[in-house]
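Subject: Transcriptional regulator, LysR family structure
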Amino acid sequence: MKPFKSRALEYLDAAVHHGSLRRAAAQLGVNPSALSRQLRALEEELGTPLLVRTSRVALTPAGELVLQHYRDQRAAERATLSRLQALQNLERGEVRIAVGEGFIADLISAPLQNFLATYPGLEIEVSMAGLTEAIMLVKEDAVDLALLYAPPDDPHLVSHIDRRQPLDLIMPAEHPLARSPTPLPLADIADHPLALIDGHTGMGQLVDMALYAAHLSYRPRMKTNSVSVLKNFVRSGLGVTFMPELTVLEEIHEGSIVAREVDASVLRDARARIVTRAERPLTIAAQAFIKHLRRSMRFFSADAPRVLDTQTLP
């Protein structure tokens, strides 16, 4: 059997990632019929179908095997190139990351600026993604690593940093719930105007799990996929929402927003993690970036401030 044609494997990867041959061709800048011919030729050469061509293309078992080989090969090539670049003191290279909106302010401020200043030859590619999409990007090797809030345990992912960052209820400082000296029951929150983020995010999935365990449901005044919209909803005095303390730390220090613990273990135990795909060799640049985030990002340098305060109590 001849060696795999790398162009055909690239087309296969793109078709699966984008869900159709036409979208993959548009993304790659090639003619759809040419892409299709390459994939048909690869299937004929291997003597087995690799794709199920329906409204959204899917892999056959043989296709999964071939695509995993291609992605492993690409990862190994990047790691080798990275080690060669390390011999040049990280003067060149790239780190591709997936990150949720809730981490952006923490990342884009000093941590990213300092990293780029330390390694001026490195390039950073940042993809905004919800939890579900970010995990998919890691598994498909579309990114080197992902910054995740409340990810599920997954044997295909390796966690390099794991910090406890509870999901609190945030509200205007003058809100009645702000005066509560004890954790807030989920049922009491339902009596107040509420905004919720959608279920593709870690925050949304956590709230859904907490409500399911408590046999409750909410009727929010507003639903959104934007952390910024949630913050403005609260800042404007329209109501309350769920958010980690660090996401609104500046507003808490200003006195405009208050964060209160919620009486739900799934929210109290929420984690922030930096993950990569299991068995995937990390580039030197990615290793350096993770090490830098461990030192400089508030979400990953320590547990949430309230958690640390509790741990230091006598």
